[in-house]
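Hi Y.,

Following your request, here is the sequence exactly as I used it, all 331 residues.
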Amino acid sequence: MGFFGKRSPTEEPRRLFFATDLHGSSQAWRKMLHAPRVYDVQALICGGDVAGKRLYPIVDVGAGRYLTTVDHRQVEVEGDTAVKDVKKRLEAEGGYYVVLRPDEAEALEQDPPAMERKFAEQVRNRLAEWVEIAEERLAGTEVSCYITGGNDDEEEMLAPLFADRFEHVVPSEGRVVEVLGHPMISLGWSNETPWHTPRETTEEHLAELIDDSASLLDSYENAIFNLHVPPKDSTLDTCAKLDTSQDPPAPVMIGGEVAQFGAGSSAVAAAIRKYQPLLSLHGHIHESTAVNTIGRTTCINPGSEYQNGTLLGAIVALRTNKVMNYQLTLG
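Below is the corresponding structure, written out as tokens. Let me know if you'd prefer a different format.
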């Protein structure tokens, strides 16, 4: 289905932009906020995960010199400008940082619970910054940015979304929100993964969570399901099969090639077949950019390349009870 299609004279299509799995990348976030102007869309949907993956200590060793990690190797940088460049790069790639004295860095390294608390604090701080930037960038427009968490996002990390009632930023999980005339439910939980993330669960429980969210809707024909995990074996969930007997898990090799499988959720697949919403938005499997249909439902996973500061997304044009067209984007 191409993006440019015939338009009905009776109802002008309205367009949304969907991106997901930004994982702390401020560069990808800022690009997303440009989408209304660049792509002429009237709504933004940011799916989970918003949290990045790692906290990087920047150790002040004195005399204007700092030790930190860049490209998985320890480096020494000197001077305020060099440190500023390192911080900017980490933010673009989704990393968090904290400047510490050597004794503070050693103490933090030896105290995993303290490290986790510091990491969660930095996630909240950046999300609060993102909300502030969104409110500034979208001021004077009618564009709303709907945000949900994912399986990597602990509930306490999402606290800045609920710190205030915002004009343009709309926390979406656990409630029905209206997106361009379409009711939308959102769910950040996933099925079980090899990584034991904060918000993953059994397929049975995931099915209950989806049903609970769907019960908030009066009907489904015009609805959007924003479910972080994609449906199983849908082409939206294809990734490397991992040997979980190793730590960390390693790819399974067959005939010299990495074995592939569908890592999505059977509960999500069953829910889409059961409820047949108009549109179903997914992420979670970064490398599986794809669009497919399940019955009448258009299912989209734009994928993610957040670690490069790249924004993958999807523009979707909608009318009442109909997906008119879509276009996957890279920028």
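The domain at 14-51+110-330 is CATH 3.60.21.10 (Purple Acid Phosphatase; chain A, domain 2).

Thanks again,
Q.
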